[in-house]
Amino acid sequence: MAFTPYYAVIFTSKHKDMSPEVADEYLQLGGKMVELAKQQDGFIRVDSVHENLGITISYWKDVESIRKWKLQADHTMARNQRDRFYLYYNTRIAKVEREYEFGAL
Amino acid sequence: MAFTPYYAVIFTSKHKDMSPEVADEYLQLGGKMVELAKQQDGFIRVDSVHENLGITISYWKDVESIRKWKLQADHTMARNQRDRFYLYYNTRIAKVEREYEFGAL
A26, A42, A38, A41: which is closest to A76 by C-alpha? Predict the structure, then answer.
C-alpha cells in the first residue's frame, strides 16, 4: 500500500444511545472529519467499520501530517462535542513497520 | 490500556462469498486464532469489527510475542486455506507510540 514505515491513527469507539437528531449531527461530523483527512497532505487511506464497536483507521505518511489534521479535526469536533457522542473512545498513534498483502480491495 | 510502546497487528480483510459449510469452517478457524492469541504470553487485547470490510486488531507487548503467535496461527490457518476464504487481506505490524483514552468499554 505504501512504503513502510508510515503511520496509522487507530480510533476505537463506542457511542452513546442518541436521539435521531444527535445521531444525524454525529454522522455529519464524522463524514466531515474523513473529508478533512482526505484533503490533507500525507493522507494515505482510511478504513472504517462499525458494529457494536467502531474502528476507524486512517493511514498517514508521517506524524507531521497527523498533527496538522488533528488541529483541524479538533476544531471540527471539539472535545465537549465528543463527550456528547461517545461512551468510550481511544486514539492510538502507531508506526506501521511491516505489511503483507494478498489480493485487492 | 498498556504502557506505550506496545504493538498492534492490524488485520484488514474482505472474504469471498462462501457456502454455509465453508463459512462455518471460516468462523471456527477465526475463533481458534483469537483463542490462541489470548493464551499467548504478551497478548494484551483484541478488537474485531466486521461489515463489508473486516478489521481485527490484536495488541501485544512486543514483536517477539507476535512472532510466537504467528507460528501457531500459520499452523492453524495455513496459507492455502486463507486463499480459499479471502478476496483480500492485509496484515500490518505497527508500534503504538501514543494513546489517548476517554471513558470505559
Answer: A26
Q: A47 — contact with chain B (CB < 8 Å)?
A: yes
Would you call B81 an interface residue with chain A, using a CB distance cutoff of 8 Å?
A: no
A-chain residues near B12 (CB < 8 A): 47, 57
- Return the DSSP state at A16: P
A 10 A CB-CB count for A37 gives: 24
- Tell which residue, B7, B40, B104, B103, has the closest CA to residue A94: B7
* Nearest CB to B49 within list A49, A87, A96: A49
**Sole residue written with cell 487485547:** B45
User: Quick check: A55 and B57 in contact, CB under 8 A?
Assistant: yes
Predicted confidence pLDDT, tens digits, chain B (105 residues): 678 899 999 999 999 998 999 989 988 888 888 999 999 999 999 999 999 899 999 999 999 999 999 988 887 777 777 888 999 999 999 999 999 988 877
Whole-angstrom Cα distance, residue A58 to residue A9? 5
Distances (CA, A) of B93 to A24, A37, A55, B64: 35, 22, 17, 12
| Closest chain B residue to A46, measured at CA | B12
State how far the Cα of B95 lies from the Cα of B5, in Å rounded to an integer: 6
B20–chain A nearest CA distance, Å: 22
CB contact under 8 A, A89 and B103: yes
What number is the average pLDDT over the span A3-11? 94
